[in-house]
């Protein structure tokens, strides 16, 4: 609203109903949560996932006889990950005012950049693509720019939650194939310890990314349930993997991934959407869509927050509150570890709009 109202009208915006948090206060709390989470994340990342794309793997030992389907897949993984600078810079623009989120985006970008280099090494050391071929392919990829799938921060945050989980799933399934566990006849007997380790190492990073963005989205869900559920609904309605429009041989990659049993629409529904929904206290896509529809039917006479109670029927707000509380405990413990708790601790503040256990909103 602010950008379409002349400045002299800003004071005439509807006031926050008594007893509820103002948007400004909610934004401050979410920002504080992100900052604490980012600091915790960085320490943990450096301590437990400080691997190197060249030095952490025995590249010379990589199999030179992998089936062509496997090379197509790892080449596609490389193609997507090598847009890391675009992902980072584009996302940075929408969150640059947030300390926690923009600094995190740099850290995240540095991890995605390692994924690109590790997958490129995998393509090279498979010895089924020449260095010249790789250089030319990379040039083709880099001649295009990845753009944000959505214009605003909340939609992109929701998108990233699903995207990170989908990516993690892709790599875990590649790991299983490289461990000789594929049930597909054309991939039976494939084993490569190096490829298995690369896939696993990157999948662990993707799981950490998923968790970061999930914790962030949960904070939004807790303080801004309606806007957040709407964003989730929009994102799953048009979900596709990043850079699908940019990678020149995407169709072949996608079909190979599907035939290899790595990833497809069913996997998205079952192992991405359902998992993320469970983590967000959302029962199902149907429940989400119906909940939002119901919320819209509730009259909103004067811009006050009458919608509040209806939206809380759409998800398990008790579960989400518990998770946001636990996030704050984790942040507080981290802050205690270096004495920050004494000077500037991150504090959890309840959203008074969240109904209490007897089903009544706190402000009723
Ligand atoms: Fe990645
Ligand atoms: Fe990631």
Automatic annotation (TrEMBL):
It holds the Pfam family FA_desaturase_2. Keywords: Fatty acid biosynthesis, Fatty acid metabolism, Iron, Lipid biosynthesis, Lipid metabolism, Metal-binding, Oxidoreductase. This is Fatty acid desaturase. It comes from the Bacteria. Belongs to the fatty acid desaturase type 2 family. The lineage of its organism: Bacteria, Thermotogati, Deinococcota, Deinococci, Deinococcales. It comes from Deinococcus aetherius. Its cofactor is Fe(2+). Gene3D superfamilies: Ribonucleotide Reductase, subunit A. The keyword Zinc-finger does not apply. PANTHER family: ACYL- ACYL-CARRIER-PROTEIN DESATURASE-RELATED, STEAROYL-[ACYL-CARRIER-PROTEIN] 9-DESATURASE 7, CHLOROPLASTIC. InterPro entries: Fatty_acid_desaturase-2, Ferritin-like_SF, RNR-like. Homodimer.
